[in-house]
Amino acid sequence: MIPSRQIVLEAGKRVAPFVHRTPVLTSRLLNELSGAEVFFKCENFQKMGAFKMRGAINAIQQLNEAQKKAGVVTHSSGNFGQALALAAKNLGVNAYVVMPSSAPTVKIEAVKAYGGLVTITEPTLEAREKSAATIVEEEGAVFLHPSNDLNVIVGQGTAALELLQDQPALEYILSPVGGGGLIAGTALAAHYLGDNCSVVGAEPMQVDDAYRAFKSGKIEYNASAETIADGLKTNLGDINFPIIMELVSDIIRVEEDEIISAMKLIWERMKLVIEPSSAVPFAALLKEREKFKNKKVGIILSGGNVELSNLPF
């Protein structure tokens, strides 16, 4: 089911009072390097440091009063947990966040600092899902999936909606692909608000399940998840996948060294702190220069929650 134009526009109005309208920045040097005119939508400046605040705030606002009173629950190793905790705090709602024991301490502490009620589990998806289901049963809380919930997806798309309002002549928007929420939302925004604007996904070669799913027409999985782009290790879901299949034009895969090189360029040339996942779309643009030559290209810089003690350069 493809949400309507109305739903996409309403999400934009709904999230606006609670999120930063992040800047769109350009770099003459990066334009020259890439051969394209590039517009970076800086979600690294978003509240809690990533685009995920948008989906969380949109989804919580759609709940009825009884549901809000019972609270919301999700499982997350970091960014969506922080987003849900902060969004819930802003709206006076309890947020239960199930986190794996392998999650960085800094992310666990951040969720707690935003008022999230944290439960630590074994670092398996099964353990996380079981723990979240228990909270749903015992507290009556509403489960919100980080990327496979329609209200979350449409909320994430408000970054591209703002980008297109600022730059209506874009010919392409490049988005990273992990769980599929951001690219599905971006594709919806481009479909309704772009002027013949194509959406292209970018994905690490090491976790190329979305690329394979795009080719096979069914959701695929990864045998391993060894990539520096730790935000892109998750799989597509049954709600976002049909939107991606219908509205995304291509998915480009990039190698680890290409991600690191693109990340370093953005840090050095634009003085922007971005996490590795954010560098993946720019790496894809550099890899496929011919495809994007002389085009107006938007890039979603998805977040800036990077561990400074663990930089790849």
Automatic annotation (TrEMBL):
The keyword Membrane does not apply. Keywords: Lyase, Pyridoxal phosphate. Transmembrane segments: none annotated. Residues 17-303 form the Tryptophan synthase beta chain-like PALP domain. The keyword Cell membrane does not apply. Its cofactor is pyridoxal 5'-phosphate. Belongs to the serine/threonine dehydratase family. This is Threonine dehydratase. It comes from Arenibacter troitsensis. The lineage of its organism: Bacteria, Pseudomonadati, Bacteroidota, Flavobacteriia, Flavobacteriales.
